[in-house]
Amino acid sequence: MDYFNKNKILIWIIIILLAINVSTVATIAYHFYNHDKTERINRKRQIRIPNKRFGRFMLRELNLNKSQRRQFQKFRHNYQKNAMMVTKEMREKRNEIFEELSKENPDTIKLYQMSEDIGDFHKTLKYQTIEHYLNMKCVCNKQQQKKLLKIFKAMQNSKVDIVSKMRR
């Protein structure tokens, strides 16, 4: 009789261990499947900002009508023109800094002033970007505004400066 009791106990231990193993494998498979699914969803939500034809990208992504497109292109053209002038001035000021630094005895007061000028140019560029965004936002409906915000967020996370993208 002792023999049958021992076998029953062993059978129950095997059943319990088997149930634990099956539930562990099922849990791992479930998490693996859900993680993969989440990754696919996240990849779909990412917005890839193109290096070329950015204006066309914006028009297509926002699905603008003809009237919106005309206003949008007008705003974009003005922004590009102004942003290019500011970035050109920043580049020239940086060159002046390097010229001054390469002198035997560089004038630190002049260097500090030039660096403040670059900061002012950068601030001007940011103001222009804000104004450009607000202008574009005014043209868009609520759904397009949400998409516009996602695009601008993606551009902020981009490693390439938006002005250099527009230059291409």
The low-confidence parts are: 38-45, 159-168
User: Could you give a short account of the major beta sheet?
Assistant: none
Distance between the termini: 88 Å
User: How many DSSP E strands?
Assistant: 0
Radius of gyration from the CA trace?
A: 30 Å
The CATH topology label of the largest domain is Four Helix Bundle (Hemerythrin (Met), subunit A)
Name the overall outline: elongated
Order of helices and strands: HHHHHH
Helix proportion range: over 70%
**Average pLDDT number:** 80
Structural class estimated from helices and strands: mainly alpha
- For the record, the CATH class of the largest domain is Mainly Alpha
Determine the strand fraction and express it as a percent band.
under 5%
Number of domains: 2
Number of discrete helical segments = 6
CATH architecture annotation name of the largest domain? Up-down Bundle
Structure in words:
It is a single chain. The chain is mainly alpha-helical and 168 residues long. The chain has two domains: 1-45; 54-167, Four Helix Bundle (Hemerythrin (Met), subunit A). It has six helices and no strands. It has helices at 2-45, 54-62, 66-101, 108-139, 142-157, 162-167. α3 runs antiparallel to α4. The radius of gyration is 30 Å and the shape is elongated. The N and C termini lie far apart (88 Å). Residues 38-45 and 159-168 have low confidence and may be disordered.
